[in-house]
Amino acid sequence: MADAAAPLNAVAARRAQARPQGRARAHSRMVRFLRVALPAVMIGVIVALAALVGAHAIRREASGRQDASTPIQMVNPHFFGRDNSGRAYTLGASQAARDDQEFQKVLLRFPSLTLDVGGPHPSTLTADEGVYREDTRILLLKGHVRGNDAKTASLATDQAIVNTRTGVVTGRSPLASQTRVGQLNSKSFDVYDKGDRMVFKGGVHARLNSK
Questions:
Q1: CB of 169 within 8 A of CB of 191?
Q2: For the domain that residue 195 is a member of, what is the CATH number?
Q3: How far apart are CA 45 and CA 154, in angstroms?
Q4: What are the backbone dihedrals phi and psi of residue 188, each rounded to the nearest 5 degrees, phi first?
């Protein structure tokens, strides 16, 4: 019995010695794996964070460019001023937007300009579109330009330029004018002195009312 037990004890001893060695090898493999995996994971986290930061910066820059390229728009704006003679004028529109290339240029939708506001002879000009320059205070009216004043005179043309500093109105498009004395047509015109003096040029045709 003693002889049979000796080999069994030797096998048990070898197995007992093998288990710690196996655990040590497994632990060593795990350590080697973690030495490789942990830096890789850290690098992956850093790359992901950098990508998120970069994407946020790109979106913010694109949003800034879009905001910068979007013109400043106004609804029902009104501008007030005075000409060189101290006469007041008002400029209104249904919509206005600053040009994205020239900040001094204001694009107007359905503008309406009234000269000599509060004076004895106010006059109003309207159009489909307008361009007003704040640096020169010159207004360009385009499309179905219509004008009326307190002297029961009216005009119709396609384009007119108004110098709000001087109150002079200039047109280089055909004009049709209606006054108390009759009708007048011309290819261009200039209006001075609040409408007291009008100069018609090119192909002038008039039809006067008989008394």
A1: yes
A2: 2.60.450.10
A3: 75
A4: -155, 170
Q: What's the token pair of residue 16?
A: 């007992």
| pTM for the model | 0.63
Domain that holds residue 7: 1-70
Report the number of distinct structural domains present in the chain. 2
Digit-coded pLDDT (tens) for 167-211:
889 888 888 887 777 788 888 888 887 666 778 888 888 777 765
Cα angle at 96 between 174 and 128, to 5 degrees? 25
Distance in angstroms (rounded) separating the CA atoms of residues 20 and 30 = 15
What one-letter code names the amino acid at 24? Answer: A
Residue whose tokens read 């390229």: 69
The half-sphere exposure of 69 on its side-chain side, counting CA atoms within 13 A, is 6
Bridge partners (DSSP) of residue 106 are 98, 132
- Compute CA distances 35 → 32, 39, 40, 42, 96, whole Å: 5, 7, 9, 11, 66
- Nearest C-alpha neighbor of 208 from the set 189, 188, 180, 187: 180
